[in-house]
Amino acid sequence: MVRTNEEICFLSASETLRRFRAGTLTPTEHLEAMIARIEAVNPIVNALVDTYFEEARTAAAEATQRYAGNGPSPRALEGLTVVIKDETPIAGKRTTAGSELLSDDVSSIDSIVVERIREAGGIIHARGAASEFCVAPFTHTRLWGVTRNPWNLEMSPGGSSGGCAAALAAGMTALADGSDIGGSIRIPAAFCGLVGFKPPYGRVPADAPWNLDHYCHQGPLARTVEDAALLENVLAGHDHRDPVSIPQELTLVVDEDASVRGMRIAFSRTLGGWPIAREVQEGVDRAAAHFASLGAEVHELDDDELGWSYDRARRAVHAHFGTLFSKDVAVAVEQEVQRLTPYVPDFVAQLSDVEKGDFFDGFSIEAEMHAALAGVFERYDLLLAPTNGVLGFVAGEDYVGSGPDIDGDTSRHWIDVCPTQVFNVCSRNPVLTVPAGRLSNGVPLGVSVVGRLYDDQTVFTAAAAFTRGRDLYEEGSRPTLLA
Description:
This protein is an alpha/beta fold. Helix content is about 35%, strand content about 15%. It has an eleven-stranded mixed beta sheet, sandwiched between helices. Strands 4-5 form a two-stranded antiparallel sheet. The radius of gyration is 21 Å and the shape is globular.
């Protein structure tokens, strides 16, 4: 029987639910273990910026009674702890988006995803740090300080959903939510050895007005593929408040006997020439070889076969961000730049030369990329690719004036080193980032499993087969934060 706090905290969410149902663990014991873990390790990692322990204790006591047969039946997430990103509105709680400018901003309503987590019995016990205004692929802010990667405290967990990812990696929650406009779920998932899902656009309903931006996605972060499916099944589904949410229902199934035998899997080391460190490319090669060992038919794509170039993809991303995302952030830069974390005005400056006409040019490139990817999926069932191009971002580094190191090259701005953005352009393709080992600096390596338009199930089936027996969080191999 599980007894120690650490053992409880690193159980998968799915296994935790099984123990709740079997009566060998209660939601109250689960929550108290998480609270003790947070008090011990959050001062080291700085992943969580607000906690809601007393409300969570009330919810855990109710969930414990449900499992005891007193009251309504347990729901899909009954009794599981869930961290919510500091961008996602929670009624009556601060939602700062990591900015001093919003430090006293209290939400009046729950986000749709928060509402669904609560209705499924999830216990929201804490708030995860995010990069300021969610613009960066690393997580530190003037407001909340530096969030660190539990696998290597000198490195960032990634961003912008970095606090949620670090909390999962450090054993402070069972599940977490994330949002992704350029890789903000997948980047920290990869750097923290997690599973992160960017659903196809419209699968998970979102809040206005950003629900109308096809680059934007809400999705789950978890330590296992099964857990990611568990949370995704709660988040997904049409909502009348989001007109782009998909009417068709989909329930993901993760079978312990999931197989890729006979699947046709293409892989690309650079996704059309993105700057990808050699060590990451070698990791993609190993991941492809593992899929082949499981019985898949694996083929490497060269850049011509893929059908787009880094420069074209970069132009599309700049046109989109420069017309929409950065224009929103620019208002804060114009008003109170001295209170912003340095990478925020740098983000706006990098996109300041985008003009109105560029938006249509960007759309034209997006159409080319959609057509090229459709051509790939006429021949293959899945595409395997790197999630991150770098070996990590240094914790607390703003990268203003010099980019992250990629095999000694620091010439590229951090906006331009995230291959995740390809699948914000091609936003209707589901992408699941899964752990695929560790890099030489101790930071986990993640690879992306990309599916056909709206074919979420095949992505989860393949990822389940790939990760079977490859748990980074089993006892003896998880991050060591306490002496």
